[in-house]
Structure formats: structure tokens, C-alpha cells
Amino acid sequence: MFEGLTGRLGEIFDRLRKRGALSEDDVNAALREVRVALLEADVALPVVKQFVAGVKERAVGQEVLRSVTPGQMVIKIVHDHLVEMLGSASEEVNLNAVPPVPILMVGLQGSGKTTTTAKIALRLRTRERKKVLMASLDVRRPAAQEQLKVLGERTEVATLPIIAGQGPVEIAKRAMLTGRLEGYDVVLLDTAGRLAIDDELMAEVAAVRDATHPVETLLVVDAMTGQDAVTVAAHFEQRVGVTGIVLTRVDGDARGGAALSMRQTTGKPIKFLGVGEKIDALEGFHPDRIAGRILGMGDVVGLVEKAAESIDREEAEKMAERMQQGAFTLDDMAAQLRQIRKMGGMSGLMGMLPGIGKIKNQLKEANIDERMLKRQEAIIGSMTKAERRDVRLLNGSRRRRIALGSGTTVQDVNRLLKQYQEMQAMMKKVKKLGQKGLMRQGLQALLPR
């Protein structure tokens, strides 16, 4: 998300940094380019005008133009305005009410509403330790209720039993009664969607709202629809009332205009971002971190949080101990590959690293294929325990057998073994240097000479 905008802004701000002293004309020229970059990212025109005017008001002041690093000051002002535009502070789901807390999920058909309902339920169950009940009120779309039931089984979240013939309001009332009788903390109500906004849809959602009095009404919109998503949000807010927004498919939206326009246009906070198809691919929305990503500063805090969620601490400590001893097996390598995939793959991790936008062209040329991680795991999985412990056993015939068993080629097997041997050599250097030597000489000591 935001790849195009990050690249354009990076080029603009690099030129500002190199200029040293800045005149008012320099700042104005840069802001004209920022304006074009935002419009190309599909940000709504009124939002762009307001943003550029706000930045200009502060950026052409004497304290900026006469500062030691005026370019950096302008970038900081742009960052601060981006944070304001995105909502200043992150907002989680409001659970401050008498249980069971009703949460109404609304949106158009195809926006990912049912999957998002399950993702939020999983997040509440695992992070907040809440007892959650999901109920599908969609009696129009074929198998919609069964879909939520299957997702409930995958996420280990209870779903309301299906009773044929009941209408949305009846189902909602039964869900709330079940929630009260069975001690649930949260009831997620997944309403029906339509391909377009119509009076019947709005009336149905309003009837459910009036029957359940939800604490939160979360609108799910597809980020890839751009400014149409903002229009949909405005209609739902006007007719039903919305407390928060969930943007889905942001991993496929390179422009990001919907995210940048949504808060300013609707006045409603973005609470979550759907960042992939996996059931746990849901991120809280943090305006300061998103602004950092847009300006190429990365999201190190998000990266650390993702690592803390994904990495098995005990396993990591054992692996670190083995590495310090210079013992690094193919089993250890397979464990590392699994951790990278759990954290969102190479592209997901790189998007959170500071300055990654500057080398995006080199990364494209490197042709990093996420499927490579799975292939490498498959190659290691096709080896025997003895072969994983001692690669010297891997002669030509064994390598052919492994390639056949993993659906790869002998060249793929050879590449993996070369990569492993390089990593193993590095681990031996770590052991030889020791902790003090590594601290004294730094990572430079591990690089090949």
C-alpha cells in the first residue's frame, strides 16, 4: 500500500534535503509536486487542497526557512499533517459497555465483510481474551450463514446456530439473547450486503440497529475501489450511522487514496486494515506509523509487534543458543523460513523497514518470489533426519530424490544448500568472535572478505 506515493514523495524530499538553504519558492514548488502526487494516489481533491494549504502555512515560516536543516523541517511538517489527516491517534474497538457488547458489521457485498467479521472475532478472542459469538444475518446470499460457520470453526469462535426461515431482525435478537444467557462478552452481527446502496438495504440495517443498539457499527469497505469507498462510507454514515471503518484489501491497493481521504471526508476513524487473505491478516490502524510508511520511514514498532506475535520465544532462545555455539542445522533454517512466512513474507517485512522505498527498483530486479520460501521449506521437508543433520550425505542421487519429492529441480536444491552453507559459515564466525568481539567489530566482521 502507498508504494507509488512513497516513491514520488521520496524523490521530492530527497531534492529538498540536497538544496541546503530553501527559499519560499523552493517550498512552493515542492508542495505543487506533493499536490500532484496525492492526486495521482487517488486522494480526494478537497482533502488534497486542505492538506497542502495546512503544510504551506507552516512550511514557509521564517523559523523553517532559516533553520539549520530546512528540508528536514518541511518533511516533519508534512509527516505531522499526514498524521492529522489520518486521525492523530489509533482507536480500538469500543468494548466499554455491559456485556454482551453488540458490534454491527455493515458494508456492500464483496467488500470482505464476513471474513473481516471472523478476523475481528479472532483478534478479540486472542488479544483481548473475550468470549465472542458471531451471527450471520445474511439470509439473501446463498451459503452466507454457512460461510461464517466455517470461519468460526477455523478461528475457534462460536457462531449462532442457523434456523431456516428467520429474518435478520429475528436472528439479531436471538443472538443477543444467546449472548446474555451463555455469558458472551461480544456479539458480532454480520449483516447482508448488496452490490450497490439501495433503500431496502439501508432499511434492513437500520431495523437491526434499532433492535440491538450496537456499541459499534463498523463499515467494511474495499480499499481498491478508491474514492468509491469514501462515497459508500458517506452514504452509510448518513443513513445508518457509523462509528468506525475497516479498510480491506489494502495489500492490493498501491495508491492508498481511500485511506488518506476517509477520515477527513467522513470524520470517522479507520480502526483496522485488512492486509491479506489469511484469517489473522488484520492490523490495527496507527496514523503515525502509516505516515511513517508513506514517507519511507518504515514502521519499526509494527515490525517488532509482528515479531512478538509470530515468534515462539522459547524456540527462538534455543536457536540463538545453538547459533552462538556455531551449530546451525537445516532444521534451524526451516524454522527461520516458517517464521518469515508467519510474519507476512519478505515483501510484508520489507514494507516496514525504514528507507526501503529508495531501493525498491533493486528489489524488483532481485525478483524476490514469496513462493521461494515455501519451495525451500518443501526441499528441507523432503530430506531425512540424517540428511538435515549432515549435508555431506547429500550426493547426486539423493539430491535428485529430494528434488522429485519436493516438486523442485536439482538446481533449486543446490541453491538452497549453498545458501545454508553461507549461513552456517556466518554462524561459525559468530562463535569464533564471541559476544565481545562481535560488539567490538560489528556486523562488518561477518561479511565475506
Polypeptide structure, described:
The chain is α/β, with parallel strands linked by helices. The protein folds into three domains: about 5-85, Four Helix Bundle (Hemerythrin (Met), subunit A), CATH 1.20.120; about 100-295, Rossmann fold (3-Layer(aba) Sandwich), CATH 3.40.50.300; about 305-445, Orthogonal Bundle (434 Repressor (Amino-terminal Domain)). Helix content is about 60%, strand content about 10%. It is built from 21 helices and eight strands. An eight-stranded mixed beta sheet has the order 3-2-4-1-5-6-7-8, with helices on both faces. Helix 3 (about 45-60) packs antiparallel against helix 5 (about 70-85), helix 15 packs antiparallel against helix 18 (about 370-380) and helix 18 crosses helix 20 (about 395-405). The model is unreliable at about 300-305, about 350-365 and about 435-449 (pLDDT under 50).
Chain-averaged pLDDT: 78
Helix percent reads 55-70%
Radius of gyration: 26 Å
Q: Characterize the biggest β-sheet.
A: 8 strands, mixed
Helical segment count: 21
CATH topology of the largest domain: Rossmann fold
N to C succession of SSEs: HHHHHEHEHEHEHEHEHEEHHHHHHHHHH
Share of β-strand residues = 5-15%
Content-based structural category: alpha/beta
